[in-house]
C-alpha cells in the first residue's frame, strides 16, 4: 500500500487507485435518471456508496481489499454524480436510496451490506431504516442524520485539494461536464435541510450498524456521532485516530481493517446471502 496521503496531495494529482476490471457494468434506468453501476468479484455482496460531489472511483483502495476478502463489490454512482444522470428535480437522499434499490433489483440482489461514506452513509442508513429486509448491515462513515450534526464549514488545503479532484473528475465523467458549479449548488442546497431524522426514527433501526467517526473529521461533530451510536439499537461506535473525513484515501489500510471486521461480523450472521430480489 502506498504511504499515507493525509494532505491529499496524491489524490488531487492522480485520484484514488484505478479500479480493477469489472465483472459487469452499465446503467439502470430509474425514476428520471440513468444510474451507473459496476460489480467486482464474487461472494457476499457489499455495496459501496461514495460521498457528495464524488464518484465510485474514490473507492479505488477499498475494492481490491473487499474482493480479495471474498466479497462481491457493487459500486453505484449517485444520481447526478460521476457517470449517473439526473433530471431537473432537487437532490434528495431518499431518492438516491431508491436508486440503489433499483440497482439491487437489476442485479437480483436480495440483500447486501452497505458501506457508505459521507452522503453515501446517509443513503445507506436510509436503506437500513426504510428497507431493512434488503440490508445486512450499514457501515456509516462520516455523516450526520440531522442538520445539527454538522460543523460550521471552515476551508482548508485538504478540502480544497479534494474539491479540485472532484471538479476534474466531474468534467471527465459526467454527461453534463460543463455544469459542475450548478451541480455543487444543487447538492449544497440539499445539505442545508437534509438529512433530518429524529431520535425516534433512529431508534426504529433494526439492522446492524457501525457509526465510524474520524478523529479530525472536518464536517461532522464528534458528539453527533456519539448520539447516533446511542440512539440506534445495538450500534457499534468506531473512532479512527489520526485521519479526517477522507480516511479511505488518507490511510486505506486503517480504514479497510475496520470495514472488513464489521462486514465479517454482520455477514457471518447469515444476513448477506445473494439471491433473487423480492417482488
UniProtKB/TrEMBL annotation:
Which positions fall inside the AB hydrolase-1 domain? 45-146
Note the InterPro entries from the entry: AB_hydrolase_1, AB_hydrolase_fold
Q: Which GO terms describe its molecular function?
A: serine hydrolase activity
Q: Which residues form a coiled coil?
A: none
User: Which key words tag this protein in UniProt?
Assistant: Hydrolase
Task: Report what the protein is called.
Answer: Alpha/beta hydrolase
What is the source species?
Paraburkholderia lacunae
What does UniProt list as this organism's lineage? Bacteria, Pseudomonadati, Pseudomonadota, Betaproteobacteria, Burkholderiales
